[in-house]
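Methods — Computational structure assignment.
A single polypeptide chain was analysed. Its primary sequence is given first, followed by the predicted tertiary structure written as structure tokens.
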Amino acid sequence: MEETYLLLCPKDWNSHRLNSMLRIVLALALFGVSPMLSQETVVSGRVIQMEITPSIIHVKKVVYPALQVADWTPEILVAEDGSFDWNIGILETPTIFELLAPPWSWMVLVRPQEQATLEIRPGSLTATRLLGSPGLARWDGAHPSSRMDSLMAFQNRANSLLSESLVLRMSGVAMASRDSLQDLTDRLEWQFDSLWKDMETHASEPVERQLLWQIRMAGALNSGKGQRAMDSLWHQSEMALEGANWTEWLMSPGNFSCWRLAHGGWWKGTDADWEKINEAIFLADGDSLAAAMGPRWRDEPWSEVAAAWLDKAISSPSELTELVWSTFRFPKPFLVAYERLTVQRAEGQSGSTVGSVPWTLPNGELGSIEDQCRQPWKVILALKSGSGAARREREMFNQVAENLDRRDVCWVVLSLDENEELWRETLSARRTLDETIGWVGNSPQIMERLGLSVIPQVLVLDQDGRVAVDNTPLPSQGLGAHLLELLPKK
């Protein structure tokens, strides 16, 4: 025993740092214990039914699920047949990731050393956005998502049955041979509760239990359950904020999301006294602020009040909300979450700094907008090959540039084409070699940084490299007149 103790606690610890892991492993071996060394998580998967199989899938690790705040992580390389091996690295807990291959996005839950195979495909509806249209993801093998998918499928079938029954009754169709609407509702709720309780009993991870409660509470709220019923479900969930580690609680996949289902939207009711809330802000009085929010909040811990204002910042941001956060000293984990939310929300909006935008030049070399454009102002037309609207706007864009004849402006055509073949098509439509054109590919990071949501789209960067204004009009919708007002006077 003494030798083991000496191995774990050497007198000169700094001189033995390089060998510390070996010493711990040896000590555990002397006790007959097998050390549990963390292993990397590698997810095997495949992309199917895509018109153009992406060569890269971009990845975000969702840090605050209820706030939809995420960090970019290394991309996934996809083979020509659509298969991929996604090396996540060491994963300590089940984590939600967002995978992106614009316009599609997939939210997936990955467990440490995941064994199931991931299959992703386009969504069932036509993509209406440049970025973030929900695709379909399925795990082949044992995975919590499969059980949750079946539970939500039951909910959808139940809702369809209730809707059909209600429509028939409203149409005056005789329903004597069928259950009453209340009987049907009660029977479907009983079946759902039985299915849900069985899944909750066999939930293997806290995260699975959280997500099951999220499904149940969302279903209750959507079916019109009152506040008393929602409070009861929240109490049963045992996900209370009181006594929890606030950082872990906010970053968990389901805790804050369930809290919002039970308590969210408090500002929509009649209990909030906005005159007194403004007075509390002026006095910087936290007790007065909580009391002015309504009886529900008067005696709640300060962390609950912080959660309530974080909920409002998510769903209903306003100048008053910003003033509350700048006035009151909410617990640091809530403040950090709020700051992350505001920073991410500001990206691509008016006043946000874009930074360097790398691209591929027509000759195949790598460069950037900053290298090609020495002028202080930059007017950018983002487009893709194959769009008739983009082709027309490109012609008018060049006309606006010629008519304004501004030496302090760099006129840029930015290609978001998915692959090199489409990029070459965009390049072939170049009217003159003087046209500044570059290719950034189907990069969601660039799209978010520039605030791009549709194609074609125009944005303006000012002399400080910031997005000058939101919603810049297209050439056909008055870009020329808009720039005359925006740009410095000659």
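Note: The CA atoms of residues 100 and 239 lie 31 Å apart.
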